[in-house]
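This part of the workshop introduces the protein records we will be handling. Getting from the letters to the tokens is the skill we practise here. The record below serves as our worked example for the rest of this section.

…
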Amino acid sequence: MSIEVGVNMEFIRHEDKSFAAGVERAAELGFRWVEPMVHNGRELLSEAGYFHSVSMDEDPLEIRDVLDRHGVRASSLSAHCPLMRPEISVPYLEKAIRFAAALGAPVVNTDEGIRPNWAPLEDAFNVMKYTLSTVLRTAERYGILIGIEPHQSISKTTAGLLRIATLVPSPMLRVNYDTGNAYLGGEDPYEGLRAVRHLLVHLHAKDITLRQAEAERGKVTGTPVGCACGDGVIDWARVVAILLEGRFSGVLSVECGTPEQARRSLEHLTAVIGRAEEAAHA
């Protein structure tokens, strides 16, 4: 595969479009990989075709048909849930793993969720270890990777992210690094990426505007979407160089807010990757 560029379906959210419409637009823009978001049960906006999230009560093969019709594949599933609440996360993630396997998505992305105010830090790690130990039994049976994303109070630091991603000795427990979340959380995203790249299976290509960086860095644990890659503070040539040094093969899933930002991100990242690979083979 080498390094390829995909898009998280959040890019279509503000246009109030369905999953199928978002996939069609992604393909028109030139993407060959998308990252669907899944949910449990029924949800009004998705049911009406105004939101891109997919219910895991749907037949995953029908969802795969949508992807096949437009010549795209799923790089992963976005399946974020509170790992510190196993009564929610265990059945949800097990369902997401089975859905991903049927869909042909190799990774299920998640994060620790918001830590309950009744959970001391060490207790939180113990509960997350129980959740992940249970879920990873299913992941190992189905051959689906679990990618922990830096996105909340613990995983916003590289040390916290690595601790969660190594709580259980399973080859299926890995990292989905998010450059924008790491930056806003106050980390050096390049050093953080180097530290986790031996566990990296997927990357959220999220850029952050200078205005947002100045207003929020060190004050938040992440953000839903970023700006177009190349318009913000992230040095993508540096990111790609780190990935090539680590022999990463996988998808950079763009997380931005509009189709126009997605288009510019694809152009920018494709050019950066092309130059870096040419230099590496020169």
Summary: The longest helix spans residues 259-281.
